[in-house]
Amino acid sequence: MKVTVCELRDSPDDLERDWERLVAHVKAEGSDLVLLPEMPFYPWFAVKREFDAAVWQAAVDAHDQRQSRLHELAPALVLGSRPVTVNSKRLNEGFAWEQANGYRAAHVKHYLPDEDGFWEASWYSRGDGAFMPIQCGAVRIGFQICTDIWFTEHARAYGKQGVHLIATPRATEKATVDKWLVAGRAAAIVSGAYSLSSTRASSEGSAANFGGQGWIVGPDGQVLGLTSRQGPFVTVEIDLEEAERAKQTYPRYVLE
């Protein structure tokens, strides 16, 4: 199957331009799956520590509006994360969208930073800690949203549950892009699955300093593709059977 990762800028005007280019890229490549960045459809609100209910609602509304445009990427399966309010609880929800079945929740981000530029625990609640795979047609998917990826026990557990790929929507700063790629390669190696990540990139004058660099990493940690400002969309054809074979090889087969 053909999978696409991307980096999208965070100002509304830049996002619209990047979105139109992404749609064209997906159509030209014939992508089967597209991963979007972490909460990509509204400027990064967690740059400020103080919670603002109006800003949170505006972010939810913006994602509602953009969600209605996911069909522009059809027939590709679309993965990503977005802000939601469920039973008065604010969450960062991973999702899968399919042309036939629409939107479904897939995972809630569990590990939340709370520091300069990333005051996430001050804005929304952590998930219940469930890291359960979802099945979308032939592909079995696990989610580790941004900081979740540093907790490799979940990647290993996903591998034991037979996932073909781990999806990591991100919003990460420019100074740490190399470190995050290490995390993606480690997740792939311990799970025997492909690691895919798409991320936010800063617009000129943005209060956040996002570094971009999405990735597609193979089940043995091999880097198959990286995005950049010059090439913000990358599509690679992956073999789901390769992920199945990897589960039987070192270090995945070692008993706990």
Offer a few descriptive terms.
28% strand; 256 residues; Nitrilase/N-carbamoyl-D-aminoacid amidohydrolase; globular; single chain; twelve-stranded mixed sheet; alpha/beta; 27% helix
Nearest-integer average pLDDT? 96
Oligomer: single chain
Q: Would you report the number of β strands?
A: 12
Number of helices: 6
Task: Report the principal-axis shape.
Answer: globular
Main sheet specs:
12 strands, mixed
Strand content: 25-35%
CATH architecture: 4-Layer Sandwich
Secondary structure layout:
Elements: E1 2-9, H1 12-29, E2 33-35, H2 53-67, E3 77-86, E4 89-98, E5 102-108, H3 120-123, E6 134-136, E7 139-143, H4 152-160, E8 165-170, H5 177-191, E9 194-201, E10 215-217, E11 223-226, E12 233-237, H6 240-246
Parallel strand pairs: 1-2, 1-9, 2-3, 7-8, 8-9
Antiparallel strand pairs: 1-12, 3-4, 4-5, 6-7, 9-10, 10-11
Helix pairs in contact: 4-5
Gist?
This protein has 256 residues and is of the alpha/beta class.
Write structural notes for this entry.
The chain is of the alpha/beta class and 256 residues long. The protein has a single domain (2-246), classed as Carbon-nitrogen hydrolase (Nitrilase/N-carbamoyl-D-aminoacid amidohydrolase, 4-Layer Sandwich). The chain contains 6 helices and 12 strands. It has helices at 12-29, 53-67, 120-123, 152-160, 177-191, 240-246; strands at residues 2-9, 33-35, 77-86, 89-98, 102-108, 134-136, 139-143, 165-170, 194-201, 215-217, 223-226, 233-237. Strands 1, 2, 3, 4, 5, 6, 7, 8, 9, 10, 11 and 12 form a 12-stranded mixed beta sheet that branches. Helix 4 (152-160) packs parallel to helix 5 (177-191). The mean pLDDT is 96.
